[in-house]
Amino acid sequence: MAAPRAPYACDPDLSRGRLFQEPPSKTRSAFRRDCDRVIHSTAFRRLKHKTQVFVFHEGDHYRTRLTHSLEVAQIARALARQLGLDEDLTEALALAHDLGHPPFGHAGERALDSCLQAHGGFDHNAQTLRVVTSLEHRYPEFDGLNLTWETLEGIVKHNGPLTQRNGAAAGRYRDRGIPIGISQYNQIYDLELWSFASLEAQVAAIADDIAYDAHDIDDGLRAGLFTVDDLTVMPLMAHMIAEIARRYPDLDNDRRGAELVRELISYLIGAVSAEARRRLEAARPRSVADVRGHGKVLIAFPPQVAEAEAGIKSFLKERMYRHPRVMRAMGEAEQILFDLFARYLKTPGDLPAEWLPSSAHETEAEHARRIGNFVAGMTDRFALIEHQRLFDSTPDLR
């Protein structure tokens, strides 16, 4: 059962609006319209062939960025419903959060960050903002999707404020500064980078953690990188596995794994919901403004669950993300993007006509960033096809 709308939930009728004014929809709220625009975007469809952990041709049952985003949205809506938040805004943020990811997962991000190091580097959140504000070309009156201020804010700030109140870079951006794609756009449309984002954005962020903890365990089991019994090194997992064995003593390994993943998702959602209620009761925000100005995150794991969840990430890092098979494929994937970027930089005529420079006065930085935008938008499959077209030898990535 859905909770009544909380006073600190984002209200679509009170949205700060869009950069380009549009008449309201007759049938949808402003946030539902945002969600629908994300779903119908070209970038969203391309997530179907973008790596989560395993390259798409490794098997039909592994997660891709698209199926990951759908799982994040399902978990995020469940939490938003329990807490009385706006489900449409929460879903829009969950579905949009990975639109800026390049091909080949984090390997692709590392490669593009290196390629663009002299021009501000590459950041997938900044790239997501570029996608929804300029790179999508679907509407006659503006570039991008013209999403509401609240959705853009959540895309940029779902992991917390990017700056201090005085504008100095904070958090993960303290050393490198605010990514250029975010800082430039913020001069056009102030997203208040110093404040926390809405609870809907905070829910989408923690749903991302829950989703990939659970489905990466599922994919790792399917790939044979570890077994269900290997997971008992973590106390939380050991308890769940023992309880499954008690209830279903003759269950086969495939169903043991599926039941474990289901139990883990339910447990983490329940833990976040309970902790959020505790923090909200203590903070007593009466509006979205109170949430943004609270100074601390309000949607989080309880401390002991946060410790257990960090243990899951550590296990997956050691046994999955750094597994020799995965590392080998991702190392080769990085090289594919290095090759493509260097080729386009040296021979611009190899780019599709629509990606050629529109001005003879393009700067070196603009030239590099345009190529970066093209490569970042590629699917794994298209990157491989392009590499095969332009080079004599292309790794198989298996």
Q: Please trace the helix and strand order, writing H or E for each element.
A: HHHHHHHHHHHHHHHH
Number of helices: 16
What is the makeup of the main sheet? none
Radius of gyration (Å): 22 Å
Low-confidence stretches: none
Estimated structural class: mainly alpha
State the helicity in percent bands: 55-70%
Question: How much strand content do the residues show?
Answer: under 5%
Question: What overall geometry do the principal axes of the alpha carbons give?
Answer: globular
Can you count the beta strands? 0
Q: What does the oligomeric state look like here?
A: single chain
> How far is the first residue's CA from the last residue's CA?
45 Å
Mean pLDDT: 94
Please give a quick description of this structure.
This protein is mainly α. The chain is 57% helix and 0% strand.
Overview of this protein structure:
The structure is a single chain. The protein starts with 29 loop residues before the first helix and ends in an 8-residue tail after the last helix. It contains 16 helices and no strands. The protein has 398 residues and is mainly α. The radius of gyration is 22 Å and the shape is globular.
Task: Please outline the helices and strands.
Blueprint: H1 30-39, H2 42-46, H3 65-83, H4 87-96, H5 105-115, H6 124-135, H7 149-157, H8 180-188, H9 199-223, H10 235-247, H11 253-283, H12 288-292, H13 303-321, H14 324-346, H15 364-376, H16 380-390
Helix pairs in contact: 1-4, 3-4, 3-9, 3-11, 4-7, 4-9, 5-14, 5-15, 6-8, 9-11, 9-13, 10-11, 14-15, 14-16
